[in-house]
Amino acid sequence: MAEEEYLVPQDLYLKSGIHIGTKFRTKYMEKFIYKTRPDGLSVLNLQKINERIKLAANLLAQYTPEDILIVSRRENGWKAVKVFANTIKCRTFAGRYPPGILTNSKLETYTEVKVILVTDSWPDRNAINDAMQVGIPVIALCDTNNQSNCIDLVVPCNNKGKKSLGLFFYILAKEYLKSRGVIKADDELKLTAEDFTEE
């Protein structure tokens, strides 16, 4: 794949470990796996990661920021989702997501959105179940060990590492803002992948 077709330089992807999966692989995720290393870790296909990030950005760009909810139970993703939410001005939920936020209008935390993105389909399953009940699309970051039930768009990537989550949300923010016409070029986003990454 030509370097210019990647959303960020290939070495940035590789340094972040966004392509390094787990030793466990589900049937669904096999189509995204490039190879298995001698130590048993699966390696995800970088081109497919890149394609799916583009798809996720294009899907999200169809919604206004206030119609988007980003959920991350996993602590390594908290800073990334908060910086992302602050950058594009969408809603976010970092930490334990109590069921009912999208379905129970009597809750103080009740929120109406039109699309959600979760950083891991297993710890964030409460949010996915809520989204299913109200019929809104779900985008999920999935590692090699994730199931894809109830997910509308799977983005294969290392969804556990701080650097890979930071890079993912940096790219997503940049592509979302470009698609919405908020910025015209990458360098107009005055943030770097490091700004999205937990210390």
Topology record:
Layout: H1 10-16, E1 33-36, E2 42-44, H2 46-60, E3 68-72, H3 78-88, E4 91-94, E5 115-118, H4 125-134, E6 138-142, E7 153-156, H5 162-179
Parallel strand pairs: 3-4, 3-5, 5-6, 6-7
Antiparallel strand pairs: 1-2
Helix pairs in contact: 1-5, 2-5, 3-5
Overall geometric form: globular
In total, the number of domains comes to 1
Portion of residues in beta strands equals 5-15%
What Rg do the Cα atoms give?
16 Å
List how many beta strands DSSP finds: 7
| Biggest sheet features | 5 strands, parallel
Explained architecture:
By secondary structure, the protein is an alpha/beta fold. The chain has one domain (3-190): 3-Layer(aba) Sandwich (Rossmann fold), CATH 3.40.50.10490. The protein is 31% helix and 15% strand. It has five helices and seven strands. It has helices at 10-16, 46-60, 78-88, 125-134, 162-179, and strands at 33-36, 42-44, 68-72, 91-94, 115-118, 138-142, 153-156. The protein has a five-stranded parallel sheet with strand order 4-3-5-6-7, with helices on both faces. The longest helix has 18 residues, at 162-179. The protein is globular and about 55 Å long. The two termini are 32 Å apart. The relative contact order is 0.20. The mean pLDDT is 94.
